Amino acid sequence: ETEANKILDDIDQRIALAPSFAGLRRFPEGRRFKQWTGDDSKALMKVYLPAIEGHVPSEMVQALRALIDFIYIARRDIIDSNSLEAMDDALECFHKYRKIFQECAFGAPNGLCSSMTESKHIKAVKEPWRRSNRFDALSQMLLTNQHLDKLAASRIDFAHRGMLQGTCLSYILEKLGMLLWLATLLENTNVF
């Protein structure tokens, strides 16, 4: 663990020492900042490969470089035949070097998909944060999540009881239809 922390500290130092350059974001505190965004991750990838060089097998660096190249090319506004060829090259390079992750026991767990956790993060954190007034936001977020959980449980209970079939309008129209039928029936039987 001590050796791993030394390596992580060295990686942080390398990230923090990245020089100023147009289009290159600086991370003076390294990779250890409190809240990450997608933009942070993309910007960090530009300085991450040189920072891990020598700490991981070179095949890992090559596989990550190929993956990042592929992603950056795929995100271009215009993709032409040269772009497609470069994507094919990057994908071929990635497949050539990706086996190192299996050999070093860095394979992805079966069935893991980050989109599942991201969607939960949006519902449980981002949306309640936006609803808060930012003062003591955590307690407001927790209260919002409690309320949402109770509403979801009520909805399941109401659906089970058949209380959520149709809309208010369909209910009213159904009742009006029954009233019209009853009025017509009464009119035809000359009760009044």
From TrEMBL:
Top-level lineage group: Eukaryota
Name of this chain's protein: Fungal-type protein kinase domain-containing protein
Organism per entry: Piloderma croceum (strain F 1598)
Lineage: Eukaryota, Fungi, Dikarya, Basidiomycota, Agaricomycotina
